[in-house]
Amino acid sequence: MTYAGSAEPPFGHVDRVLAIAAHPDDVDFKAGGTIAQWTAAGTEVTYLVLTDGAAGGEDPAVPRAELAAVREAEQRAAADAVGAKEVVFLGLPDGELTADLELRREITRVIRRVRPQRALIQSPEINWDFLPDVHPDHRAAGEAALAALYPDARNPRAYPELLLAEGLRPCVVPEIWVMTSPRPDTWVDITDVFDRKLAALRAHTSQTAHRANLADDIRSRLRGQAAAGGLADGRMAEAFQVIRTEPAAQPVERTR
């Protein structure tokens, strides 16, 4: 993989990644190419989708329950396109996400089960440069995921029922990669896997079939991000803010 930026690239291989997002398609739009490269290198990637996506359809005549089922199937197909191992759905109402303790506990449960060494999350901050990133569900997902990663998942006193009743031990996640951050510091060159990212996006038929210029729009945005990261003209990149929750020399857990 090719990295650019100030976050001390390249990053080492990890065994497991957990990608946490509000809606079906969020991860694929922001990180599908990066995930395709990670899975090609042998990393197991799990998606955790918090809402049912039932407020995202173009046709208001489609019942919410029907659209939710469609979007779940689309997300599974998209995850297959980039090689993700598993998709977990919480099924919360689209458009009503709140970063409360209940949501933090549910995210913590998945973190402790998957035991990732790297997490992908949405930004809890507003990115005014791109309006679609300002969706309140995205920010709530980012806030809840960040709190679940630090301190909840690693704190044995947080949600003791997860340990006592379910045997889910505390888990430290050394890296957090923030999608849609207003301050990216790491760019991943995805030019060579763009077709896989595009296949994942096209799997979200209910969200992208009406976009005749989807491929060109995505290329344009990715080329702009690559230019911002200092990559060569014509390359395409996904952008992240990378946070290390442990010192760089901290050993990474590689056993379940």
From TrEMBL:
<keyword id="KW-0862">Zinc</keyword>
<dbReference type="InterPro" id="IPR024078">
    <property type="entry name" value="LmbE-like_dom_sf"/>
</dbReference>
<dbReference type="InterPro" id="IPR003737">
    <property type="entry name" value="GlcNAc_PI_deacetylase-related"/>
</dbReference>
<protein>
    <submittedName>
        <fullName>PIG-L deacetylase family protein</fullName>
    </submittedName>
</protein>
<dbReference type="Pfam" id="PF02585">
    <property type="entry name" value="PIG-L"/>
</dbReference>
